[in-house]
Protein: Tryptophan synthase beta chain
Amino acid sequence: MNKKGCRTHDSPSFVYPRQENMQQPNTMNYNVDKNGYYGRFGGAYIPEILHANVENLKREYLRIIDDPAFQKEFRDLLADYVGRPSPLTFAPRMSKRYGTKIYLKREDLNHTGAHKINNTIGQILLARRMGKTRIIAETGAGQHGVATATVCALTGMRCIVYMGATDVERQHLNVQKMQMLGAEVRPVRSGNMTLKDATNEAIRDWCCHPADTHYIIGSTVGPHPYPDMVARFQSVISEEIKKQLQAKEGRDWPDYLIACVGGGSNAAGTFYHYLNDTRVKLIAAEAAGLGIDTGHSAATIHLGREGIIHGARTLVMQTPDGQITEPYSISAGLDYPGIGPVHANLAETRRAEIRAVTDDEALKAAFELTALEGIIPALESAHALAVFGQKKFKPEDVVVLTVSGRGDKDMETYVKHFNRADHE
Ligand SMILES: Cc1ncc(COP(=O)(O)O)c(C=O)c1O
Structure:
């Protein structure tokens, strides 16, 4: 147990940090309500200057999302450009090692190498319909930046990507890709120069250019309608899992779903069609960095308290007087001090089990998947894979884990640790 009563990753079942005056959560509702809340998390806490933009976005998104012409364009691009459906791959050697039946949902095989493209395709079509001509985005690992630069090239839109200077350095292959795709990458030097700081700058930019600019947020964070909109665009993941499991297992639901959470978009997409199906147990893996009690961690759900970050009420890593704590993870896509409100609610209602995974556990899991199945995962996805080292599953369980991205962007980190492991 740590000081706050949270269990550490050595005894990892999630205990939500209890707060005084906490309202009783609505345990029956895991979907967003009409005001953009998941239980008591979510909403839209925005500067006055963005009010019209956010209201317009909400109106247009809700009008378009069920429009058959929009859906056709979105679905056609997912099929012919992204390469969907992504396979659901049975992992025989991992299954043998962990004594359970493991399937991998292969978002790593998408065009641009991760799940992020599902959302950027949806949002660029929306931006075009709203008459926007300038696109901004924030990025951590660079995957969302590459996915945004890609859809901007596809549609001929101007693209500016904010990226923390630390991330520019550790993910420089993705920076080069964004530049080749025609995007302007603006390094951000405030804070610890990672995802939170990039998001701050993107919001500042949006405040200065509200008329012509659409901000493509890359995760289930930000003011309503972003968390719901991003989850809807990513929900193609669970829609496909249902069909693929039906074909492979004769039933359309697994016993467990596992995904990593940074802001929460691949997990939200993986869980979406199963949120209210309690036969399916949900597991989210967040980044514990060097360990959740070390002061070098990004385990927001374990360590966070209720607060407001980037326009949403959610769990936030913060000091007792409300200053945001700088997060740390080896993985550039997971070191965010907030969490999507959908996941804050899933954790609080105990609908999802939240596991904190350290850098070392993630690295070990990445090397293991590579050796056993010939798949090099992104460091973010490796956090989800490490759950197999923490938790025992039954032989008859069907476990689906989303491999959110491929490991190309992380090769330098892998090589560094692989060589070190070799010489120890
Ligand atoms: C491959 C990959 N997986 C996961 C994430 C975490 O984001 P999210 O929690 O929104 O899925 C990222 C973020 O950059 C990523 O690149």
User: Anything to note?
Assistant: The mean pLDDT is 92.
